[in-house]
Design goal:
- It is a single chain.
- By secondary structure, the chain is mainly alpha-helical.
- It is built from five helices and no strands.
- It has helices at residues 19-25, 28-44, 48-57, 72-80, 88-94.
- The longest helix has 17 residues, at 28-44.
Length: 101
């Protein structure tokens, strides 16, 4: 799946979202992940969509995240995610492995 959930983690969708987005991302688990990404966003002072990208980039194995920026502003935002470091506890929190940060 896309590193940033096709915008799901930007928190731009509501009940009027396209059906393909609903089918792919609208699950109770993903809404909980979004809630937790928003919590980390506040702690780290970055957009929740960048928390999602940092999550992908901070895995303990080699990854190559492909982002679909539509303009320079979105690309610059994605580049900022390179500066975010998530702790193992924060990654576990986003993975729903624990209820505490």
């Amino acid at each position: 799946m896309a590193a940033q959930g096709h915008g799901f983690f930007a928190d731009i969708y509501d009940d009027n979202a396209p059906q393909d987005i609903k089918d792919a991302f609208f699950t109770p688990e993903n809404f909980e992940r979004l809630k937790r990404a928003k919590e980390l966003r506040k702690l780290k002072g970055v957009p929740s969509i960048n928390i999602a990208l940092a999550y992908v980039l901070d895995q303990p194995f080699d990854v190559a995240a492909i982002v679909g920026s539509r303009n320079k502003s979105e690309f610059d935002s994605c580049a900022e995610a390179l500066k975010i470091r998530l702790t193992p506890a924060e990654i576990d929190y986003l993975c729903l492995k624990t209820d505490k940060l």
